Amino acid sequence: MTVTEDRPAAATGEIGRDRRRKEDQRLITGRTRWTDNIQLTGMLHMAMVRSPFAHAKIVSIDTSAAKAATNVVDVYTGADLGESQGVLINAWPITPDQKTPVHLPMPADRVAFAGEIVAAVVARTAAEARDAAELVDVEYEELPAALDMKEALRDEVLAHPDLGSNKSALWVFDSAEAGTGGNVDDAIAAARTDGVVVEREFRQNRLIPAFMEPRSTVVDPTGEQNVMYSATQVPHILRFALAATTGVPESKIRVVAPDVGGGFGGKLQVTPEEWLTWCIARRLGKPLKYTETRSESLMAAHHGRDQWQKLTMAADKDGTLTGFKIELTADLGAYVAVVGGGVPVLGAFMFNAIYKIPAYHFACQTVLTNKTWVDAYRGAGRPEATFGVERMMDELAHELGMDPMEVRRKNWIRHDEFPYTTVSGLEYDTGNYEAATEEAMASFGYDELRAEQQRRRESGDRVQLGIGISTFTEMCGLAPSRVLGSLDYGAGGWENASIRMLATGSVEVTTGASAHGQGHETAFSQIVADRLGVPFESVEILHGDTQVASKGLDTYGSRSLTVGGEALVKAADKVIEKAKPVAAHLLEANVDDIEFEAGTFSVRGTDQGISIADVAGAVFVAHNLPEGMEPSIDADATYDPVNFSFPHGTHLCAAEVDTETGAIKLRKYTCVDDIGNVINPLIVAGQVHGGLVQGIAQALFEDAVFDDAGTLVSASFVDYLVPTAADMISFDVHHRSTPSLTNTLGTKGVGEAGTIASTPAVVNAIVDAVRHFGVNDIVMPCTPERVWRAINGSGAGGADPTTGDAMPHFDAEGEQA
Amino acid sequence: MIPAQFEYAAPTSLEEALALLAEHGDEAKVIAGGQSLLPVLRMRLNAPEHVIDIGRIEGLRGIREDGDAIVIGATTTHATVLTDPLVAEHAALLTKAVHHLADAQIRHRGTFGGALAHADPAGDMGAPALALGAEFVIAEQGGGTRTVGADDFFVDLFETAIGEDELLTEVRIPKHTGWGAHYEKFVRVAHQWPIVAVAATLKAEGGTITEARVGLTNMGSTPLRARAVEQSLTGQPATEDAVRAACEAAAEGTNPPSDLNGDADYRRHLATVLSRRAVLAAAAG
Q: Is residue A809's pLDDT more than 70?
């Protein structure tokens, strides 16, 4: 894949430089501390016994054979652990009356999804634990399972009989009630007579985050502080939740997220596996490790997306939007996960996207089923919303016979209208949709591709061409705390950083934004190096250990740079302010005459100066400091932004559809993302490329399919299709830099942009390629079979479910293999 | 992903391997490259008590010419087949097909004989071997060997003519020197097993097809020959229309599976389209 974005001519400082990531050598070679690499003296190993049934009563569990197996230390059931195992929290109850099933790490009486843990086996080696797990004999009494979320809404079969209903919560935003716009039903009624109304129902397929490193947890209870090492995105939230639910004082808990191999939201969970490792290690008084298998990861780590979107869009006959009504049904799975119902609710602020919509209504019904639980997955709520609105803009254009870009242009917020308060109540600070679109269309060759499409259509070519548009925006940062509070989110959105000026010239920086593959160590070093005028190599970024970076709210929602990066800047500024009087004292000058530039304090109008490293050294020995001064120039800062950041971009996709087979081939993909000021273009390009692939994969490949019994069918990478480079094309990636006004670095989030924008661009392109066959939707993932069926008119938009069986490659008894 | 415990043996001679098979019977599994067996063991879908590694038996590896055939040893890796000039010259269909088999890492571990003996109907080697009329040399207990023709080798899903106490030692491929060949594989992602694939090889003289062989991958419980297509093609010009007409019968007699990647009717449709494309490409190259 090529990177073709415009680079800044010649970055003078560190910010804006294409620095290769300093962490990559150890990460790529694996010569580092992945959690599963950790070995502690006397460490025991754990394996889980999981329910094969989606919903069943646990009649009995016979652990005697497992307990008698070689080197087995003990076997635990939910009944054995009782309340000592703690409970898993939902941090975002979206309504006061939300139905939230109690989520025990290991239930004693009833399992609610296939993959739920019913017993835990501890042995001296991982292999012995796994072997013994097969000897645990569980008797189940199967219960009817609530599997299809729409059927579950009827409450005929209950996922949790004690709750009395599968309906967890209904969250509503209405612009007429909020005073941000008109009444949407009136707008729709008016459009039915005088304008146009487009009604569609879209499916958001269920996805699996499929991070590269499976989850792993080691608990060491042998010291005064109980230490949990975990492959998590959220060490600080994990520590808080452990303290809040297990009765251990927070000060006795240290959580370490060593190098973590990817998350995509999938590791922002607090998990049954972590809680059981914690509980059992403490019970045994010995270090204990649990590492999941890939099969367990796919089955039991939380899934993402999974919604039905009933959308009604009203417009005047000239294409001017008059109203947009969104009715979502969102599958939570068996439990309300840590963010859970909050993920689809984030869509409330994004379905209006970049458009001026006079009347708006968003309702989200969350539903409990007997499937794997659902939570954040790269983009979390925003991809779903972007998909819905961008698909609808294309449908509206089609209904009106307009070019889909023209409909967008007619309705988007013009660059001279910022700051702009949207119908869902957010204030967008900046944006220039016109400029990004113009650049994207030129680079894409929009007009030429449209002409080619026309030629292919007229000649009845076997290969038809389609063009898909996605002009997206997103809200990044997951802060400010005040806004999160107003949404009943259980935490704030600030971030913390500290800077320690070491005596030998090194600079130690801690950040509460704990990276799991993003390249924080490089980008944050660039920021600090620039700000303090020290060499890039002198800066060390420490993170992911609650004893080292004691305060933080971790990494998700494209927040690390816009929130965590700003905390760094504030801490650095404090260091400079504290160092200034020392410099003045050593230079025998008045502090008001001291200037700081490129790492040197100098006396204005003279050639006298002293480097910040020398100031740090002088402070260390503390022999000669200003009278009464505390001998420290270290500083920390906690930053809570005033607003989200709002990156945006125009993504254009050209796709070829082989009408004989339904096969899809990407022809060209151009994106122009306005992501504000860029710290490291190389890292940005990596984020965009990876994000695009993940979003394209939702459109074309990935699907978590369950069978009629509630068993995950796509339970290995044979059937859960994650694409590789061989399945992609080179992307035409550009970025623009309209600085964000919500932070001093002028940055916006970029970690999720590609994922959010690309899915609708791809599906719009496919539908556009075959629309003349009477197709107006194809259910995701757009498999060749679905496309072929859509073209041949069988099944609305190829919605017929494909037979839910896995390929049988591994079921059989291979003779020679 | 830890397999259950098993006893591992690595015999260095065929006799030793056969003796171990005789001793352990159905409690033993043979491993060569391990690209199919290891996932089965790691996912604990099977837990044999004995695993017999035939990778150290020298005589089972390599490719040689033997009169009107080329002979491929059972433990020859796919990567070796891919780059072998004898194969390219006399059995171009294999070269074309193995190029699409999984990825480079698997091709360097996985073996030609192992893939055929595993007999996954979605495996990429079965249909080309069938189309080329391969003969399978099987070592029996007591030192004898027997040769089984391709038509009798594949019995059912994951089942071949190899007995429990026998070993596949080599595969003889009749030379198809100068035949055009093409393997048309239909997948959603590159590393996937084919949803359907068609292996076509043919001889043409003056634009007329004189002989054609067409094998189908994943259209039933074994690799299949599209005999009706082969017959219709014989004597036809290698034109789009003639080939299209002949390939309409590609799915005749097949019994394709329905799974996440496609229902049976879609696979039947694919078989006709892919057969046409494979035959036309084979005729062109």
A: no
